Amino acid sequence: MELVMLGQRAWVLAMAFASSIWGSARGETLTVHDMDDDVDEVVAHEGLIADQIEGAEHEALSAEQIDGNEHEGLFVEQVEGTEHEALSDEQIEEIEQEGSEHQPLSAEEMHGIHKKMDANGDGKVSMAEVLAFSDSARRQILEREVETVLEEMDIDKDRKLSVQELVKDLDSWGGEDVKEDEHEAATMKEVETAKFGAADTNKDGLLDIHELPAMFYPDMHDGVLDLTTGQTLRQKDGDGDGLLSLQEFWRGGVPADAPLDQEGDELLITDDEKEEFQKLDADHSGKLDLQELKAFQSSRLHTEEAMRSLFELADKDKDMHLTAEELGAAREQIAGSEAYYPLVEWAELYDDDL
């Protein structure tokens, strides 16, 4: 089954932060500025399927352009609508339309996923069952992903990660810039060691395959998430008031009163970013506290939004439950919604069972 890049900003942000904010599998450490750039770059590719982004099948680009290195950056600029002779407006529109047309899952796959979600076997699934299934499926997916990481970091090959192995591996994180900055390197070591301690649920001084995902995906463990959320807040909190303004949240470490709409300024806050911030600002104070920031970094908010979209499309009798028939009948509509990407992941995870 072909993986796709969702056009919806909410799910893109969720994935970007859940997988990258504290380092993707292999744990490359990112600065706050890097994280913002990564999210912006992902969002810039809205509507493109993954193989288009990676440079496969770019018929509009000549062989010379592809062979010339930097074709990826050129392609991004062309898709964003800047004036390049290689792509006409019509070609750009065709690419965007192609990327937005996701292949629906089959009715059989939908029925199979429904059976997996139906915890009590009553033939219909509630929102609680869907969210519980989502949590379980994500943990299985991440445990598979970190197996490769463990193989690389596990020096004594005991299938577990020790603090000593973690510290030894830290030298390869973050590149030369981090190594040259002793304070930053020390902070990184302190944070990662603290995360290790929190993730070690049985307190045996080792992380097994079930505990390790929390090191790279903090929302898999409340204690690790608390640590990383606090660190993010301290990094982004430019005025030191323990809260994040709109500008601090999206641009990090800048003065809270920095201009939000200066044309051409790299600190420009977009309308989408403002809307996202408002959703997170539960108490409507105009700033995010630790708990509100934690909700964002946990990705739970975005998962719930995606599943609400699923229910809006499929729950035809509005009883707040989904039958297998309802799910299968709505598969075409779901293919264009925020709910599509997690369903694709689940179908791939349980491919042999569906």
Shape: globular
Measure the end-to-end span.
13 Å
**Major sheet: arrangement of strands:** 1-4
The portion of residues forming beta strands comes to under 5%
Name the helicity range.
55-70%
Number of separate domains: 2
Query: How many β-strand stretches?
Result: 4
The helix/strand series, from N terminus to C terminus, equals: HHHHHHHEHEHHHEHHHHHHEHHH
Structural class: mainly alpha
Largest sheet: 2 strands, antiparallel
Query: What is the residue-mean pLDDT, rounded to a whole number?
Result: 76
Measured on Cα atoms, how large is the radius of gyration? 22 Å
Detail the poorly predicted runs: 1-86
Count of helical stretches = 20
Description:
This protein has 354 residues and is mainly α. Helices cover 57% and strands 3% of the residues. It has 20 helices and four strands. It has helices spanning 9-20, 32-44, 50-53, 63-67, 71-79, 89-100, 107-117, 127-153, 163-170, 175-180, 182-199, 213-216, 222-236, 246-251, 271-280, 290-297, 300-314, 324-329, 331-334, 340-349, and strands at residues 124-126, 161-162, 206-207, 321-323. The strands form two sheets. It has a two-stranded antiparallel sheet with strand order 1-4. The protein has a two-stranded antiparallel sheet with strand order 2-3. The longest helix is centred in the middle third of the chain and has 27 residues, at 127-153. The radius of gyration is 22 Å and the shape is globular. The chain starts with 8 loop residues before the first helix and ends in a 5-residue tail after the last helix.
